[in-house]
Amino acid sequence: MISLRVNGEHRELDVDPAMPLLWALRENLAMTGTKFGCGIAQCGACTVHLNGRAIRSCVTPVSAAEGGEVTTIEGLADRTPGEGLHPLQTAWIEKQVPQCGYCQSGQLMSAAALLDSNPNPDDAAIDAAMAGNVCRCGMYSRIKSAIKHAASQNRAVVQSFDPGASVNAEDDVGEKAHG
Ligand code: FES
Ligand code: FES
């Protein structure tokens, strides 16, 4: 029996410990938001978080998640209860990122792990973090734009609570954030 937490809920899985985590998520827990693409850690479609790190669930045995915390695309919006959509999901909608959509849950999970570790990534950091996520529709520029947009929104929130910021500075931040 494998015990783990998935999107904040305790789960027990009576499965082969060598089974890929992706299989357990999709087949045993009916969480089909995480996709199978290549099965060999080359496309990123199966990306989830394990203890806060982006991992390829197609090549990660479920036993590696024993006692761990897994977050899938189904739980991305609920990581902080009451906060609604993750800022990346909002940015994805605003920038109209998805085409066929197949790669998108993996893209979002990689991007979310990036912003968790680096809230203000530059182009090189975004390229490095997203290099393993392939998009057959070629939406790379929109993905990068959405990540930058989400990062700028996060900075605006921080600055709006800066007691040293002037009212005018807050207005500037708000205008940029929405412009
Ligand atoms: S399905 Fe896991 S990296 Fe492609
Ligand atoms: S949106 Fe189609 S594969 Fe990325």
From TrEMBL:
This is Aerobic-type carbon monoxide dehydrogenase, small subunit CoxS/CutS-like protein. Pfam families: Fer2, Fer2_2. It comes from Congregibacter litoralis KT71. It comes from the Bacteria. Residues 1-76 form the 2Fe-2S ferredoxin-type domain. Its EC number is 1.3.99.16. GO terms for molecular function: 2 iron, 2 sulfur cluster binding; isoquinoline 1-oxidoreductase activity; metal ion binding. The keyword RNA-binding does not apply. Keywords: 2Fe-2S, Iron, Iron-sulfur, Metal-binding, Oxidoreductase.
